[in-house]
Design a protein that fits this description.
- This protein folds into two domains: 280 residues, Aldehyde Dehydrogenase, Chain A, domain 1; 182 residues, Aldehyde Dehydrogenase, Chain A, domain 2, CATH 3.40.309.10.
- The longest helix is centred in the first third of the chain and has 23 residues.
- The model has no long low-confidence stretch (mean pLDDT 97).
- Strand 11, helix 8 and strand 12 form a beta-alpha-beta unit.
- The protein contains 14 helices and 23 strands.
- It is globular, with a radius of gyration of 23 Å.
- It has a seven-stranded mixed beta sheet, sandwiched between helices. A six-stranded mixed beta sheet has the order 10-9-8-11-12-22, sandwiched between helices. A three-stranded mixed beta sheet has the order 1-5-4, covered by helices on one side.
- The chain is of the alpha/beta class.
- Helix 9 packs across helix 10.
Length: 478
């Protein structure tokens, strides 16, 4: 086992404080010891970024492209190794871990292209003899705070555009999954990222995260995580006049209409609700089912849910890996108990004792629920789904929108009219038709409405809005 340190100004730096990174599939398996930082290390990282910012902002688009392209190639080449680390560290299946690593590679390659596609506007002034030029410039130093559920992909889709548009970065990964962030730091370092342009500081949100958010020299914060933490960050950044981007989860509805293809609907809901152990902010946690198909849908969903194989993330037959840690498992099981106390019928959801010490939970389905129940108002973030019965399309839309969140929404139907109407009326940033709510492309915008998101969209060409500022220049030609 090797100690893993922070990356500051191109050097690996130890804080002298290490914590074991444990495999949730088998708690006897220690992945490594990762250093925990403090405010002093954040200060050092900011100083490093300040010293590098001007040079990186002035770097040619080709230089930025070459770095990001090289990182993308290296991640893709090491997809098996990194995917295995991801599966050991977070608990998603090996296939999902490899897929997420490839997604991170695709993100870096996409933004390598964006380095060469940056554009501006040259316009005529309303005044004679004057030209107007509109350009984009880097924000400056950005603080990136990432979650544990997609430690490769989400880190990539924050780091890559930040670097592509000329910003220096300080990354604080979730303390449950520092290994993936450390691998990203290694790859960036090995592929020639200039010292100080990218800095990694691992540690607790209350110390490292807070120091990043409150530092006066960090110009922008991009955060993915809980609503409570996001609200705090928004308040601090508003007071300090920092640019801020927040992604804070969802309570995503999937509507199943009477005319839906049953096989398509069950497949979409099974995937969206239970895959990745339900640990996705885009998971389908509220299944809003029209009365005419309700009984057939529930019967088939239960049959397929109970046939899912829960096990070690690295085992070939595993479809659902473990919950990420003991605290999250305890929270999930508490929601299962809450469902019973709220008079829902509970199918599954119990803790599983397998042949390895890990955090295993059977998928759960809550039947006979109402949208007023806490299990349908609060994000559970585990393999738990609720079924809500409705009589009509209009009632389904109203229920889908009756939430403080607005990240993703889906509908299963063979009616073009209802699909079109739902796309227009759903109060969500992303809408899926006959597809799982979880599962997005890397080249298009990601984000939600209401309590799910705040600020500019992530991913795709829309990322330029957050990572740059607009400058308007006037030139007198005469």
């Amino acid at each position: 086992m090797r100690n893993h340190d922070h990356l500051i100004k191109g050097e690996w730096v130890s804080s002298g404080n290490y914590q074991d990174n444990v495999n949730p599939s088998d708690t006897r398996d220690v992945i490594g010891a990762y250093s925990y930082g403090d405010a002093a290390l954040v200060e050092a990282a900011v100083a490093a970024a300040k010293s590098a910012q001007a040079g990186w902002a002035d770097a040619t688009p080709q230089a930025r492209h070459d770095l990001l392209e090289a990182v993308g190639r290296e991640l893709a080449a090491r997809k098996e190794e990194i995917g295995r680390l991801l599966a050991r560290e977070e608990g998603k299946t090996l296939a999902e871990g490899i897929g997420e690593t490839l997604r991170a590679a695709q993100v870096f390659k996409f933004f390598a292209g964006e380095c060469l596609r940056q554009v501006g506007d040259l316009q005529a002034s309303v005044r004679p003899g004057i030209d107007v030029e509109v350009t984009r410039e880097p924000v400056g130093i950005v603080g990136l705070i990432t979650p544990w559920n997609f430690p490769m992909a989400i880190s990539a889709w924050k780091i890559a555009p930040a670097l592509a548009f000329g910003n220096c970065v300080i990354l604080k990964p979730a303390d449950l999954t520092p290994g993936c962030a450390h691998i990203l730091a290694q790859v960036l370092h090995e592929q020639g990222c200039p010292p100080g342009v990218f800095n990694l500081v691992m540690g607790r949100g209350a110390t490292v995260g807070e120091a990043i958010v409150t530092h006066p020299d960090i110009a922008a914060i991009s955060f993915t995580g809980s609503r409570t933490t996001g609200d705090h960050i928004a308040e601090v950044c508003g007071r300090m006049k920092k640019k801020v981007q927040l992604e804070m989860g969802g309570k995503n509805p999937m509507v199943v209409l009477d005319d839906a293809d049953l096989s398509t609907a069950v497949s979409a809901c099974l995937n969206g609700t239970y895959f990745s152990t339900g640990q996705r902010c885009t998971a389908s946690s509220r299944l809003i089912v029209q009365a005419g198909i309700h009984d057939r849908f529930v019967e088939e969903l239960i049959r397929q849910m109970q046939a899912l194989t829960v096990g070690d993330a690295l085992d070939a037959g595993t479809q659902i890996g473990p919950v990420v840690d003991a605290r999250q498992l305890k929270s999930n099981l508490a929601y299962v108990d809450l469902a019973r106390s709220e008079a829902a019928e509970v199918i599954g959801g119990e803790r599983l004792e397998l042949n390895k010490p890990g955090f295993y939970q059977a998928p759960a389905l809550f039947l006979g629920t109402t949208n007023a129940m806490r299990i349908n108002r609060e994000e559970i973030f585990g393999p738990c789904g609720s079924v809500l019965k409705v009589d009509s399309f209009d009632a389904a839309v109203a229920m889908a929108n009756d939430t403080e969140f607005g990240l993703a929404a889906g509908i299963c139907t063979t009616s073009l009219y209802h699909a079109r109407a739902f796309r227009r009326r759903a109060e969500a940033g992303m809408v899926m038709v006959n597809l799982p709510t979880a599962g997005v492309d890397y080249h298009v915008p990601f984000g939600g409405r209401k309590g799910s998101s705040f600020g500019a969209r992530e991913q795709g060409r829309y990322a330029v809005e957050f990572y740059t500022v607009v400058k308007t220049s006037y030139v007198c030609a005469g």
